[in-house]
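Sat 14:20. Reprocessing the chain from the morning session after the first attempt stalled halfway. Input below, unchanged.
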Amino acid sequence: MEITVLIDNKKNTLAYRSEHGLSILIEFNGATVLFDTGKSDAFIQNAKILGKDLGKVDYVVLSHAHYDHTGGLEDFLILNKTAKVVLKEDVLRERWSVSHGYNRRIGFPLRKRFEQFNERYHFIKATEEIVPGLFVFPEIKKPTNHSFTDSYLFVQEKGSLVPDTFNDELFMAAVNDNKLVVFTGCAHNGVENMIKTAIDYTQINEIEFMIGGTHLNRASEQQIVDTANQLSQFCIKRAAFNHCSGKRAIDLLKTALKGRVEYGYAGTSFRV
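Finished this time. C-alpha cells:
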C-alpha cells in the first residue's frame, strides 16, 4: 500500500503547494482511492509534481462536508470522468462556522449544484468495502463525546443554525496483512471513536498505521492529554497526524505513543 498526502496545511518542500485542507491518495490492491480533495485544485497540482495520475482514481471518498475537504471536488470531476464519489447524504446540508465572531458558510461548495454531477455520487449508509480490504465507515460509535472542540460549528436546520453533530462524517480503514490502516479526515466524532469502530468491525487490534486529522487544534491541554491517554490504550505502531491536529496535540500524542508519531506534510508518501 502506498499513501501520499496530496494537500495539507503544511508542505515538506517548496516544490509543493499547501493550503488549509486535506487530500490523501491511497493505492491499494490494484485500486486508487482519493480521500478528500482539499479546498481548491492545489492537490491536483501536487499530484502532477509527484507523478500521480488522478485520471486513474477509482473512488473519491469525502470524509465530511467542510469546504477544506470538498472544495477541490469539481476540478477533480472535470479531470476524472469515471470515479464514483462516496459520501453521506448529510453532506448536502449547509454548514456554518462562528469561530471568527460572525457567521460564515463552510459547507460543501457543490451542494447547490448537486444535480450537475448527480450520477457520480454514491451515498453510503452502512459500512461498505469499496475495494477488497478497504472499508468506508459511515457510522461511528461514540462512547466519547468530543463536542468540546466543535462548539463554534453549526448546521442549518429549517432556517435556523443548530450545533453540528457531524452526522455527515465518515472514515476509512484498510485491512493490510491482518493489520489495520486507519484514515481520518478531521475526526470531529473523535479519533479514538473511529479506531474503536474499526477494531470492533474487523476484530483486528493492531493498527499498523494511521493518518489524518484529529481536530485537537482548538482543544485544551487537558482535553489533548485525555485523548492521548485513550490512544495509548490501542496498539498503534505508527501514525502521521496533520491538518487540524495542531502542534501541541501532535507533540503530546508523540509522547503518548512513544515517538511513533510524525507530521503528514503535503508531498509526503508512506509505504505500508
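The radius of gyration is 17 Å.
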